[in-house]
Structure formats: C-alpha cells, structure tokens
Specification:
The complex is a heterodimer of chains A (287) and B (556).
Chain A: H1 2-9, H2 16-30, H3 74-81, H4 91-104, H5 109-121, H6 128-139, H7 146-151, H8 156-160, H9 162-175, H10 179-188, H11 190-196, H12 202-217, E1 218-222, H13 223-230, H14 234-244, E2 247-249, E3 252-254, E4 267-268, H15 274-286
Antiparallel strand pairs in A: 1-3, 2-3
Chain B: H1 6-15, H2 37-55, H3 59-74, H4 77-95, H5 104-107, H6 119-139, H7 144-163, H8 174-196, H9 203-211, H10 218-232, H11 234-243, H12 247-255, H13 258-277, H14 281-286, H15 303-319, H16 323-339, H17 341-344, H18 350-370, H19 377-393, H20 401-411, H21 428-431, H22 435-449, H23 453-460, E1 465-467, H24 468-475, H25 479-492, E2 494-497, E3 507-510, E4 514-519, E5 522-527, E6 529-530, H26 535-555
Antiparallel strand pairs in B: 1-5, 2-3, 4-5
Helix pairs in contact in B: 3-4, 6-7, 8-13, 10-13, 11-12, 13-15, 15-16, 15-18, 16-18, 18-19, 18-20, 20-22, 24-25
The chains are: A mainly alpha (287), B mainly alpha (556).
Chain lengths: 287, 556
C-alpha cells in the first residue's frame, strides 16, 4: 500500500533540481557507502545533486537531554540526522524503534518527532495508535514540554479527536500538579488504561514524574499527602520510598536536601570581564 | 525580506479574480533553441510584437536593464549591489509603484548587448523574473499564474545553479542571495496559505491547484534547500572553521565559490524558518547545530538574515518553554537593531526590520510575563513604552489570557499546513483550519497552566517564612489548591537553559530570582539578590576623568 502511494509521498518533481535530490534520497537508503562526495569527481549531470549527507553523527553531541545518545541505536541516529528522515520508506524503522521504547521503558523524543514529521508530510501513513503511544510516552517526560511539541506537529482535527483530548486532560492535570485528581481521572475510565496499555510501566513512570516534583519542592512532607500524590499504599509505597532514599517516620517523610529543595538566598555578584577593562589598561599606557 | 502583509493580499486575491493572459505556453524564449525554419519565423514575428511593446518602456528603465545585464555578464558584484539595492527600488517608486515591471518577454528583445542571444541571457532573464515576481508579491496581488510561474522561475534558477556542468561562474551580492532564499520561502508560505482558502476560488483555480500538487510542495522546497546545503558543503566548511582543518578541501570546487557558500549558509537559516512554520521547533533549532550565535557568524553580514535568524531561534525557544533562552535571543537582536537604527533608516528594508522588531518586542513581553527576568536597560524602557499596558494585564491571572493571545497572534510567524485541502470533498474546506489558531490554542493552554503564578510570586516576595494555611487565607484559596500552585511555581521556575554546545543543548537550572521549599506546612522563601554593580560606574568615570586630563594637557 505504501509503495502504491509513494508517487504522492515523493511526488514527481516539477523540475530537475528536485528530481536530482529525489533520486538522491532513494539512493541514500540503498547505497549508503557511495554517499560520500569526492570533490575531485564532479557529479555526473544525470545525477546532479548526488547525495552527500555528511556523516554528522560522529561529530554531533546528543541533542535531547532526555535521550542520551548512548541508548540510541546508530541506525536511528544517522536516520534522524540526515535527509533520510524525510523518506517515507523509513517510517517503519522508526515505528519499530518506538515499539521497542514502549516495551523497554526507554524514551527518545527526537526519534518520535521524526515519525510525526513523516505523518505530517504523508498523512496516508498515519497510524493512530502510534500517535497515542508517542503522546503517552511524552507524558512521562513532564516537566519537559514534549507533549506540546508533539501536538504542534499534529493537525487541529487530529487534536480534537476524543483519545487525544483525553490524553490532553491527563497532561493538564500533571502540568497543574493536581496529582490526586490525575489518579481519580485515570481510574475513572477504562479508555485511559486502553490508551496507555502499550506503554509498559506507564503508572510507575508517572509516579517518577510526581516524585521528581516532590523531591524538588519538599524537605519534609506528611506521608498521607505523599501517598495520595503517588497513589500507593503498603509495601509498594515503602519500597518506592526506599528506592529514592526517603525515610518515613511518625507520618512524616524526610527528603534529603538537593540543589532544588534547599532554597538558599544567593547574592549574585557581578563578573567583570577582561574586555571591559581594555580601555582603562590602554590609558595606563599613555601615562 | 519580510512581507507580512500577504494575508490582506490573499484576501484581496480572492475577491478580485485577475485572469492573466500575459503568459504564453509556447514562449519561444523559454525553449532551448529552435531550428525549424517555420517556427523560427513565428519566433521572429513574436519578437517583433514584443519589440513594439518594448518600445513603450521608459528610457530610464531601458538604460537600467542594459546596465543590469552588463553587470551580470561581467560578474561585477560591486555594481550589481548598487543596481539591486538602489536603482531597482528607485525606479520601482518612480515608474511601477502600482503596476508590474515590463514583462520579461518584452525586455528580452531589447538590444541590450551585442552578444544576444547567449546562454547567459537566459540567466539574466531568470534573475530579472525573480525581481519581477518579487515586485508583484510585494506591491500587487499575485494571481495563481504568477504563483505558478514564479515557482517555475525559481526551479530554473536553482536548476542552473545546481545542475549545470560544474560550478557556475555567476556572482551576486550577499544581500540578493539572502533575498532569493528568503523570498523563495516567503512565496512557499504564501502559496500554502492561499491554497488552503478554498472559499471564493473559481472552479478553474481549484482545478489548477488540484492538478498541480507538486508546485510549491513541501518536499520540493526542502529538496532545494537541502541540495544547496549539500552542494556547497557548508556543513563541512562550518565544522572546519570551528575545529580547524583544510578549508579548501572541505569546501570543494562548489563550496569555495561565494555564490554556493552563501546560498548554502542561507539555506540553513531558511530551514530554521521552514521548520518553525511547520511547527517543528526541535528540528528547527537542530538545523543550527553547526552555527554559533556570535557576532562573527556569517549571518551577521546581511542584516535581514541576522534579524530573521534571531527571530526564529527566539520563537522556537519560546515554544519549547525555554523562555530564558528566548529572552536572550530577542534582547540580543533588539539591542542590535536599536544601535544600528541610523544605518537602517536608509535601507529599503527598514520597514520590514522595524516590523519584525516590533513583533519581537511583543514576544519578549510574553516571555517576560512567563519568566520575569532583568533586561538590558534600553530594551526594558522600550518594552515598557510599547507594551507596558499589556505587561501588567498579563500578570492578572485568567483575565490576562486574551492579551497573551493578541500578542501571540500578532507576533507569531505565518504557520503553514504542509498539505493542500482535500479538493474532492466539498466539506473539507470548512474542516480546514487556520494553523496559527491551532498553535496559539496549544500555547495558550500552556500559559493557562501557570496563570496564577504572578500573584503567588508577588505574595511570596513579601515573606521569608509563611504557613500554608495563612497564605491560603490571604489568597482566598483552599490550602490544597495553594499546594498545587506551589508545585507548579517550582516547576515553572526551572528551565533548560543553554550554556554551551549546540542550540538544543542546555542545563536544567533555576531561572527565577525567587525560590522556596516546603517543610510540611511551612513555606521557606529565599530571594536571590543582585549585588550592586560597581564596574560600570567606575569604568565610565575613569573614562570621563581621562577625557578631562587629556583636555587639560592639551591646554598646557
């Protein structure tokens, strides 16, 4: 089905400029090794814009702080760095990578945005479940703005669909730190469980999001309140606390001091740069 | 160039349908070379017609075209610069303020140079057409034919540059090269918006749009920009200039020519813009991976490019909630515009730069409302003058939302939908929404999440410790609600902020002067203070003193 529609995905370009590159894109996927550009051999006129996507991956540092490059396979890295990211044939590679993220509790925003980009340009490729999974995954990245960055790539009609509206409600509750409300909502409708079912460890990832905010804000917190935030009881609650190194005594949980929850008064002193003084030093020469 | 008036133009286009018969499908001058004798005769006849029409062209314009043509042939960049920047605009004002320049077909037979016709005349005509259509876009209402033909003309131009045998020898001023890329994207954006408004379009126009989906398609526009980047090996060149190495080798035979190098570089900035228009902010900033935002960068050579770069970098940061970085980008360029104002007033692009500057003040106001920051003194004064009222409205909770919306819609780029509407479905037109509404909705939702923060902040600033119950009573809130607001404030006072590396990199740091922590029901508040700044005062006075001493010495 994809092959049949490819004519639309990579349209018959109007002018030679574009046909040249279109050839390039196809070639790039199959003949990667020929992609290097030798300046001593001018490109053949029939393939005027021979692809030269430079192998940037080796020199480029990791982009997204939430996705360390070491967990990103090299195939994906080179795909999202070059023009291959626009090739509709590659959507399945990225979708498989997303499935792996969902199963292995990994997260890679840049790769997921590349899927949405391909959907944006080739609406016929769109798979709703994939979009849901990407959005569910991005909920687990809060307080990063990932959820919105995904929404910007969708159309208004898509965002108006019920499942995405539901996920947007979850986002709102998390962003507004209404955690108790979040869990009530999440439990209130089976649809939420369905939507998040393909993302393994969703609830524990959300607990992590919440724990992170608590960790930044509180030094001590009543354990009743914390339990309601985390929506956990008993042993599960205790072991989660232990994993963060928090201690619960007499109904009060103590959270170790970190750089976000200490709230120290700082006086910012000015830094004088050497350049500011060059003129003054110049005067001293005149004396 | 910054042309943001297109919306009105587009609307006008829908009302007033101009059918242009000026284009001839079998235009002999567009064909390669015609051997057939009978066709040759026709060509001659047609040329005579054109020549008669050409005779009506004012002498001043004829002279100008002659000069222009000669400078192109001579690759005289210096003269071309003045032809492009001054003469063209002066003549536009004088002869063509409300009409098109002479049709390219009319000027072709003018006895320009003894070398006519040569292949370089095709290049000249392509360049002339570039100006011709750009003038239509900026002063008149482009018809669908204009849009199509302008696209074809850009294809011809880029085809010539990219697909000739070996690098072409043509040289053009940097300003013009930037304008080519800029205008190419502008017309693409304008076309996307035009295509989506099916209302008031004739069946003929709709049929044309439906049958030519490849014209101004996203893929072809991206292809051009990426091809220019690849051909010029600009990425390699930038890496070499950053890390050292053999520039000649990195640039190759194409990239070592200024035409290719600058087009490649401007295409990077062009991609930054295109991706912003498509709502892909991370990818937009990723395009800038190898460009460092400092004064020595190449973009600073062309003011319009400099301004564009910072506008889109700032905007992308803002949409990624990196307000501190957005504020830095906007302030940088606004200070630059402020300081160089006296030079711009003379430039034909002054109006556009001023408009962009105004939009950036609006975005700056939005960013400041979301992330209060100390600004450069002059910028701060200007911001208060222009948007003082809006700034205070945006601090007022829910009732400030319309102000956020107004500023956003005024200052956001003209977003585009990459695909045309479904022409088969008559109802699709109604479904097709305006992309800027979509973007502003998402953005405003984000603003709503933090709308209560300014009030909370202003209260916290008054105390060092405070009980939750007591503060809740002051704010007329439930203690539970106050807790959630505090959690929001905590998160919103931290952002990823750039410190080194590529534009997307950054550290998660506090960006607010106010911080707090909770010990159960007690809020402990800490405010960072900026110590007094002595250096500036002393340096200024040392300077003054030095002047006095110098003055005294002169008298002796």
């Amino acid at each position: 089905m994809r092959a049949a529609k490819e004519g639309r995905a990579v349209p018959n370009m109007y002018c030679d400029v574009t046909t040249g590159v279109r050839g390039g894109w196809r070639r790039a996927t199959h003949h990667k090794s020929h992609a290097s550009h030798d300046p001593t051999h001018p490109t053949h006129p029939t393939h005027p814009t021979h692809p030269t996507h430079p192998s940037m991956s080796s020199t480029m540092p990791s982009i997204s702080p939430s996705a360390p490059a070491k967990t990103r396979p090299e195939v994906i890295q080179s795909l999202i760095d070059g023009v291959d990211r626009y090739n509709p044939d590659n959507v399945s590679i990225l979708e498989e990578y997303l499935t792996a993220q969902c199963q292995n509790e990994d997260y890679d925003l840049m790769a997921n945005l590349a899927i949405l980009k391909l959907y944006q340009f080739n609406p016929h490729l769109t798979t709703d479940q994939v979009i849901f999974n990407i959005l569910v995954k991005s909920l687990t990245a809060i307080p990063e703005p990932d959820f919105n960055l995904c929404l910007y790539l969708l159309t208004e009609q898509m965002v108006a669909d019920e499942p995405i509206q539901k996920l947007t409600l979850l986002q709102q509750l998390l962003e507004e730190a209404r955690y108790k409300n979040f869990w009530e909502t999440y439990d209130s409708d089976e649809l939420y469980k369905e939507l998040t079912s393909e993302v393994r460890g969703f609830t524990s990832a959300i607990r992590k999001v919440i724990a992170n905010v608590v960790n930044m804000t509180y030094q001590t917190i009543s354990s009743d309140l914390l339990r309601s935030y985390l929506h956990l009881e008993g042993d599960a609650y205790k072991s989660l606390l232990a994993s963060y190194g928090w201690s619960d005594a007499d109904g009060v949980v103590t959270i170790p001091i970190n750089k976000h929850n200490e709230a120290k008064t700082v006086v910012i002193r000015e830094n004088i740069k050497f350049e500011q003084l060059t003129k003054v030093i110049g005067y001293s020469n005149e004396l | 160039m910054y042309q943001d008036t297109f919306e009105e133009e587009d609307l006008a286009a829908e009302i007033e349908l101009v059918t242009s018969d000026s284009y001839h499908a079998e235009d002999p001058l567009d064909e390669e070379y015609v051997d057939d004798a009978s066709i040759q005769q026709q060509v001659l006849l047609q040329q005579q017609q054109y020549a008669t029409a050409g005779a009506q062209i004012p002498d001043g314009v004829k002279n100008f075209i002659g000069h222009f043509h000669r400078h192109i042939l001579d690759n005289n960049v210096y003269e071309l610069h003045s032809v492009y920047e001054n003469s063209f605009n002066k003549l536009t004002e004088k002869y063509f303020p409300k009409s098109t320049w002479p049709e390219p077909e009319y000027i072709a037979p003018l006895p320009l140079t003894p070398f006519y016709p040569t292949t370089s005349d095709q290049v000249f005509l392509t360049l002339y057409r570039e100006l011709y259509y750009r003038h239509i876009y900026s002063r008149l209402t482009p018809t669908i034919e204009h849009r199509f033909h302008s696209y074809e003309n850009y294809c011809d131009l880029f085809n010539y540059i990219l697909n000739s045998e070996g690098p072409v020898t043509l040289e053009l001023p940097n300003q013009w090269l930037w304008d080519i890329i800029d205008e190419f994207i502008y017309q693409f954006q304008s076309f996307c918006n035009y295509r989506n408004r099916l209302k008031n379009k004739s069946d003929e126009e709709i049929a044309l749009l439906r049958d030519n989906p490849q014209i101004w398609s996203c893929y072809s526009v991206l292809n051009v920009l990426y091809s220019l980047i690849q051909k010029s090996r600009i990425t390699e060149q930038l890496l070499v200039s950053k890390h050292g190495g053999d520039m000649q080798e990195a640039a190759g035979e194409y990239g070592s020519r200024p035409l290719y190098k600058m087009l490649g570089y401007f295409s990077i900035v062009g991609l930054l813009r295109v991706h912003c228009l498509l709502g892909d902010y991370t990818l937009a900033l990723k395009m800038m991976d190898n460009i460092e935002l400092n004064k020595k960068a190449l973009f600073a050579r062309v003011t319009a490019c400099h301004v564009t770069t910072f506008y889109y970098v700032g905007f992308a940061y803002m949409m990624m909630r990196r307000y501190a970085d957005a504020i830095k980008a906007f302030s940088h360029i606004l200070v630059f515009i402020q300081r160089t104002k006296q030079y711009h007033t003379r430039s034909y692009q002054y109006d556009q730069i001023a408009k962009k500057g105004d939009q950036m003040y609006a975005l700056l106001a939005v960013c400041i409302a979301l992330c209060p920051t100390r600004l450069d003194e002059t910028i701060h004064t200007h911001l208060r003058e222009k948007y003082g009222e809006q700034l205070s409205k945006m601090q007022k909770g829910e009732e400030g939302i319309p102000t956020f919306e107004d500023l956003f819609l005024y200052a956001c780029p003209k977003f585009i939908l990459p695909n045309g509407p479904n022409f088969e479905d008559p109802n699709a037109a109604n479904l097709n929404s305006e992309p800027h509404i979509h973007h502003s909705k998402i953005f405003l939702n984000d603003v709503r999440h933090q709308i209560t923060i300014p009030t909370l902040r202003s209260f916290l600033k008054l105390y060092t410790t405070m009980g939750i119950d007591k503060l809740a009573a002051f704010l007329e809130l439930e203690p539970e609600e106050l807790r959630t607001q505090l959690l929001v404030l905590k998160q919103k006072s931290r952002q990823t902020r750039w410190s080194s590396g590529t534009l997307l990199e950054g550290e998660y740091v506090p960006t607010s002067d106010l911080d707090f922590c909770l010990k159960q029901d007690m809020i402990h508040i800490a405010e960072s203070k900026v110590g007094r700044r002595y250096a500036d005062w002393f340096l200024r006075n040392i300077g003054k003193f030095q002047d006095i001493v110098a003055g005294l010495e002169q008298r002796n």
